[in-house]
Structure formats: structure tokens, C-alpha cells
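Re: the request from the purification team.
They wanted to know what the chain is likely to look like in 3D before they choose a buffer screen. I agreed to run a prediction and write the result into the notebook, where they can find it.
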Amino acid sequence: MNSSCERQFAPPYIMIASNHIFLQLVIFLCIVNSVAALVSTAGNFIVVVTIWRTTSLHCPSFVLLSGLALSDLAVGLISQPIFVVFNSADLYGNCDLFYVTSNVHGYFSTQLLSVSFFTVSATVVDRLLALKFHLRYRELVTVRKALFCLLLIWVIGNFFAIWVLIDRPNAQIGIITLAVVVLFITAVSYVKISRLIRHHQNQIANQFQVPQRGQSCVQTSVPNMARYRKSVRSLLYIAGFFCVSNIVWVFWVIAKNLVNGNYEEENELAMRILFSVTYLNSCFNPFLYCWRIKEIRQAMKEQLRNLF
């Protein structure tokens, strides 16, 4: 890099093109994200269109799931292309393009990853409400309320994105703190769901010992509970995959603060690798929906059949 670039940029934005190993890794990340962006955009677009064009899927749980697919669609359509341009500008030493795309990428990546994170947590809480208040669930949780929840999540994500641009160190601390709180709420929700399912199974087992008159209740409850357990397991796959691909960020931020500014190039490359791993989650989610959620799989087949 020329001296003007070296004066213009300070850590953590380190020009890494001078290191041959880093150069190869960044080129590899550009290729991976270019391909993943196409897959993520196409897959999540089909999921969003399928949910909103299928009347039977117009319920709060699928509305929240469409919100997650929408944020993944924006990742493939906006964040990943900007990420590729950002790395390409670094490789070719284009200081002006590097500066613009680094800030734009920082904004959209923070916003979309925050939206995805809170939406996943909202889907878990939704499943808890469906089980705990199953008789009043449709009254308490409506499509309109689910849409309002998604709107609120996008507003929060936009707030965090602006905060990162203004004050990155404090914003990282604030985001991690809130993420830990939300993760705790999500974990507690899963524990309560497991306990309620176990309690319900015990009730069903006891009903089998009741005379013939009580068996009709069992026959109507078992399929519903089996379907609910399957939806919870599907959500566990989605939330678990998302958390695994994002929890590393917490350890990276902690490790970065512990080194006290040393290993700037290594930290910068680690950050780009973490972004790529996180973005791959958006690429795999549509396949996960089709694999685990029968309603989406059937509706998607119908939409594709009508299209072709």
C-alpha cells in the first residue's frame, strides 16, 4: 500500500494485501461469499414469497420465520456483495472505495445480524407462548402483533447499526450485553418448553389408564403435541445453528480486548473470517426450512410448480 493509505487508515482497518498468506485467504473469502450470496438471495427469496403467497401459512409463527428469511435475504442481497467489494478494495489498494464500503458494510452487517438474532429469539418465545397459553394463544398472539414485533426488531437493529458507526467500542459492549440477556431469555424459554412438554406427556400417559370415555381426549391431544414437538425441534436446529455461528463473536471481542492492540492484522483477518461464517448461516437456512418444516416444503413445491 502507498503511504497515503497508511496515513488515512488506522487499526483495526489494516491493509493486509502485503502478506501473501492473508492475501490468499481474503481471495478465498471473496469467492465463498460471492457464491453464498447468490444461493442465499435465491433461497430466502423463495421462502419469503412462499410464506406470503400461501394463505395456510399466515400465522404468527410463520410470519416470524418469514422475518428471519427476509433478514437472510438482505444479507445475501446487500451485506455479502458489499463485503466482497470491501475485501476487493483492500486487495487492490483502493483507499477511497475501501473507506466507503467498510463503513457501509459495518452498518448493514450490524443491522441485519441484530435483526436475525432477535428474530430467532422471538420465534422461541412464540413457541413457549403457544404451549403455555395454548387455549388463548390465537387471542394473545396475532399476525398483526407478530408484524409489529418484526418492525420493532428492525428499529432496534437500525439503532445498533448507527451506534456502531458513531461509537464502535461502546456499541460492541452494549450489543454483547444485550445479546447475553437475550440468550439467557432464550435458554430459559427452551427449559420451560421442555418442562411443559414433559408435563404434558405425563398427563397423556395417565389418560391412557382412564376408561374408554377419556380416550377421545388422548386421540386429539397426541397428534397436536407430536406436531408441536416437531416444530420445537425444527426451531432448535435453526436457533442452534445460528447461535453456534454467532457466539464466536463474543469470544473474539473478548480476545481482541485482551491482546491490547497487538496482532492487528490477525484480528482483522479473524473478523473477516467470522463474518463469512456468520453469512453462511443465511445461505443454509432455506435448506434447513425445507428439511425440517413440512408445511414450507409442500408450499414451496406448489409455488415452484405454478412458476414452471
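For the purification team: The CA atoms of residues 45 and 73 lie 6 Å apart.
Please add any questions underneath this entry.
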